[in-house]
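STRUCTURE:
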């Protein structure tokens, strides 16, 4: 689960009461984020299945369109963070940005339960707008409750990161039980209940922050220029009149065209970063070049990592034998495996990096390991789809379960250092553009993930043959990209001029 860290505030930080050694507001922000992630990940397992069942009349040929829409949605969620950060910084302040974003996201989640495709897409567009105003800002507030240089800050973000993963772990389990055992059955899940439950989770996130924000003692409140209701009203109107229709349009166009739009959006900050680097110094220029090289490889990682909500969902639904003997493992629960793996493996991997001492891999080498582990997950799928298919056309349960764990190792090699590394390599005056470039590289990867998932399903719905063909391509692309980055890592590291 990728998180967003922000720098500590240079302003004076109040003397907060502590709970378990950390400022009391951290735990309020932890629970606010927990419920937001509950809402966000609660819909992940059901979205593509619902699209096929509700809008494609259950026709497997609709899987490709469903994957394309899911990939576009996820891409635009990341892209919207760029605008959300600017709105909070310049217009309405952090606290009002979180509250406004939570309300807008909640409205979008409830809209997903509508029975028509246009209203469903409108709900997705609304979630995208709200997420942009919420997600990057609450992470920024975590940094602001610690003074500059506070040794507890890194562990505070680790605790906050656990809130992200706990919410993401629990929500698929709860929403699946509600959809299939309380309001529906295995043959006819009540998918709309998933969206309503997620909407309720977002309401709880809003209420948690509304009643807990006094603990912040003024951190993140609007300044004098931002405090009036006029700016807040203008932001809400612009979000509804410009933001939602704009993202609705981007969700409705061909996913390939959207990808070119996202690439064009990345090219602009990339050129500006290079020009600024050249102006500053040769060292700054080299750092920008190193950053852009790593961003390019970052696209490959997220393209294949983000199959969980699209092609892996169809794979689990149609080709994985989920019969464990004593129960059938629900499709939705696969969405929790990554979070469990992150919680279990993160301290182990952190311990390994420390024990390696001077042999600890450099940042480019860690990125290459992320790509390679991702590729190994696809190697396992290739093996399963070519060798382990039973008479019913199913592969063993353990194979997909293991895929999520292997991918999680790759994520831990790459994701925790990504944003921090990018901002350190950027020219000082354009660190915001570097952050935007990072998010756009993930957005491009996520949109490509939808296109790739469409290929895994083929024209008539996923089969063993179509999945094997696509996942074989994914394996070779990841392994070649990982090996290439591993080989050029010394050059990239030299361009970084000592940045760790």
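SEQUENCE:
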């Amino acid at each position: 689960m990728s998180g967003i860290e922000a720098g500590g505030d240079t302003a004076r930080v109040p003397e907060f009461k502590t709970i378990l050694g950390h400022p009391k507001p951290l735990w309020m922000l932890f629970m606010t984020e927990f419920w937001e992630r509950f809402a966000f990940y609660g819909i992940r397992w059901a979205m593509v299945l619902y699209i096929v069942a509700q809008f494609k009349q259950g026709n497997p040929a609709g899987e490709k369109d469903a994957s394309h829409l899911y990939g576009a949605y996820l891409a635009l969620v990341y892209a919207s963070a760029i605008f959300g950060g600017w709105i909070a910084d310049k217009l309405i302040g952090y606290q009002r940005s979180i509250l406004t974003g939570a309300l807008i996201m909640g409205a979008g989640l409830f809209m997903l339960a509508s029975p028509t495709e246009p209203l469903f897409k409108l709900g997705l567009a609304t979630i995208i707008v709200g997420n942009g105003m919420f997600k990057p800002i609450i992470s920024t507030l975590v940094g602001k409750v610690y003074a500059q240089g506070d040794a507890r800050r890194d562990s505070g973000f680790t605790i906050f990161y656990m809130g992200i993963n706990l919410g993401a772990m629990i929500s698929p389990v709860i929403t699946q039980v509600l959809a299939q055992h309380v309001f529906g059955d295995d043959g006819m899940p009540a998918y709309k209940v998933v969206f309503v439950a997620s909407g309720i989770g977002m309401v709880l996130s809003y209420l948690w922050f509304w009643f807990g924000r006094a603990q912040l003692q003024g951190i993140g409140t609007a300044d004098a220029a931002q405090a009036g209701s006029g700016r807040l009203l203008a932001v809400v109107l612009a979000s509804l009149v410009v933001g939602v229709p704009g993202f609705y349009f981007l969700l409705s166009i061909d996913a390939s065209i959207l990808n070119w739009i996202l690439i064009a959006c990345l090219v602009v900050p990339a050129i500006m970063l290079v020009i600024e680097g050249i102006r500053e110094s040769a060292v700054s220029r080299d750092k920008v070049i190193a950053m852009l090289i790593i961003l390019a490889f970052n696209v490959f990682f997220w393209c294949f990592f983000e199959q969980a909500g699209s092609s892996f969902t169809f794979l689990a639904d149609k080709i994985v034998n989920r019969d464990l003997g004593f129960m059938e493992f629900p499709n939705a629960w696969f969405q929790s495996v990554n979070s469990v793996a992150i919680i279990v493996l993160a301290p182990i991997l952190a311990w390994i990096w420390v024990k390696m001492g001077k042999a600890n891999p450099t940042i480019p080498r860690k990125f290459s390991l992320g790509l390679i582990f991702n590729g190994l997950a696809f190697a396992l799928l290739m093996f399963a789809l070519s060798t382990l298919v039973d008479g019913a056309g199913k592969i063993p349960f353990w194979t997909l379960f293991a895929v999520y764990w292997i991918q999680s190792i790759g994520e831990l090699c790459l994701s925790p250092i990504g944003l921090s590394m990018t901002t350190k390599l950027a020219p000082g005056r354009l660190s915001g553009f570097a952050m935007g470039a990072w998010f756009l590289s993930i957005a491009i990867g996520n949109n490509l993930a939808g296109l790739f998932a469409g290929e895994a399903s083929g024209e008539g719905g996923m089969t063993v043959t179509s999945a094997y063909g696509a996942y074989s391509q994914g394996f070779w692309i990841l392994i070649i990209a990982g090996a290439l980055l591993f080989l050029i890592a010394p050059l990239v590291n030299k361009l970084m001029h000592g940045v760790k």
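REMARK: The first helix runs from residue 24 to 42.
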